[in-house]
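Extended Data, panel c. Modelled sequence:
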Amino acid sequence: MESVDITIMEEAAVAAGKIIMQYYREGQQVTNTAEVRHKSLNNPLTKADLEADLLLNKMLLEARPDYGWLSEETIDNPDRLTKKRVWVVDPIDGTKEFIAGLPQFAVSIGLVEDGKPIAACVHNPAAGETFLAVLGGGTSLNRQPVQTSPRSQLTGSTCLASRSETKRGDWDVFKGEFDLTIMGSIAYKLALVSAGHYDITFTLTPKNEWDFCAGELLVTEAGGQVTHKDGSKCRYNKKNPRVKSLLATNGSIHSSLLQRLEDIPYGPDRHSPIT
């Protein structure tokens, strides 16, 4: 992969982050200027999402016009399925946290080649953190190399849990088993696992490719492992980008987590069906 691609991704993510921060209010709800509305139940959208998406689309596709495009905030174009390389983007992963003034959201950009991620950037502008990864080149946080944690025992692992899933009671069964921290944005959670700040994160509630594409490469390039609940590997630029589950660990405890979750049921899809 051309090294310039990761530079383009970082520049685009930082530029999008600057737009987002014009609306963000630390510790407070965003104002009416953010124009909060809802695409569906518990699925908010803001002016910041749309403006960041437009900027990312312009910067990334002007730099690489022959690449495909898949973004949460852009109407899907099936033409992407014919492309060898595809940008997989979420302009704000963790919109609910952004709205609430919590610094737990991120710009997520993945670059996929033939269904596999080859470059990744997850940028949290509120925390001043930029995570980068290139296939075969490792993972960095603010340009410093990072690795997943060395933990070898599943019980007692530090685990990042979804805020919305926790409120619904999905994580009650794991209380006392894991050292749980509640956090929004799966892209940011994956980034924190890649840097060794936490041992694991997982969700048995459906997600989309743009939620975790970049984060997967961050974790795997840092020494970790990412799969679905059945142990299968992730594939990208599929016709239907929706998946049932995602598990990420430091690598050492992945098989133990798969075994632990074997009999735990999937959560319902509250947004769209999986085909």
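The domain at 3-145 is CATH 3.30.540.10 (Fructose-1,6-Bisphosphatase; Chain A, domain 1). This feature is highlighted in the accompanying rendering.
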